[in-house]
Structures are given as structure tokens and as C-alpha cells.
């Protein structure tokens, strides 16, 4: 599912902005989209990067200082959101505006 989604994003020339790294389903989506030619930006907190909590980001990476800043960048930049069935960040993004 994740690899197919990445291919669809690339085929439709949809830019992907995500939380960075190569872990989990979003890592698969990002890698698949990037390999197929999509523009991909990983917005990753420096603390995650410095503590090696994520694998390397295959695409362009924007390191930032805080989770709220990360979410603000993603919300201000994106036209739409796709949530996948995994993890804490999905719960935050899903309930952010409630």
C-alpha cells in the first residue's frame, strides 16, 4: 500500500511533505515517491536527527528545532493530508484542529 501510494503521488506529480527519515510506512511512501521522480521534503526535528531516532532521509531535508514548528511548517505548506495507520504523530495530526 505505501509503495503504491508513493508511485501514485509521483505519477500525478504531487509534491510530498512528510516528517523525514526512512522509518515506517511514511518512509516507504517517501522513498517510493522520490525514486519515481516526485519532489519530496522531509521536515525532521533536529533532536530526532541528532539522536538517530530516524533513518536517513533520502530526499531534501529541512531540520527544525521543535515539534510545534514541524507541524506548523507541514500545515502551512501542504494542500492535503494523508494519514496512515501508524504511530503517535498520526494521532496528533488527526486531532490537531479539534
TrEMBL record:
Domain of life: Eukaryota
The UniProt record lists the keyword Membrane: yes
A cellular component annotation (GO) from this entry: cytosol
Xref: InterPro entries: LDcluster4 (IPR041164)
Transmembrane segments: 16-35, 71-93
Keywords from the UniProt entry: Membrane, Transmembrane, Transmembrane helix
GO biological process: cytokinin biosynthetic process
Molecular functions per Gene Ontology: hydrolase activity, hydrolyzing N-glycosyl compounds
The protein's name in its UniProt record: Uncharacterized protein
Organism this protein belongs to: Gossypium stocksii
Amino acid at each position: 500500500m505505501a509503495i503504491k501510494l508513493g508511485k501514485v503521488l509521483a505519477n500525478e506529480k504531487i509534491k510530498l511533505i512528510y516528517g523525514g527519515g526512512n522509518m515506517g510506512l511514511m518512509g516507504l511512501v517517501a522513498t517510493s515517491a522520490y525514486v519515481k521522480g516526485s519532489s519530496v521534503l522531509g521536515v525532521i526535528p533536529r533532536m530526532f536527527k541528532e539522536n538517530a531516532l530516524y533513518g536517513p532521509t533520502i530526499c531534501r531535508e529541512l531540520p527544525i528545532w521543535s515539534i510545534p514548528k514541524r507541524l506548523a511548517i507541514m500545515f502551512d505548506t501542504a494542500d492535503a493530508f494523508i494519514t496512515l495507520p501508524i504511530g503517535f504523530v498520526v494521532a496528533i495530526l488527526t486531532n490537531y484542529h479539534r
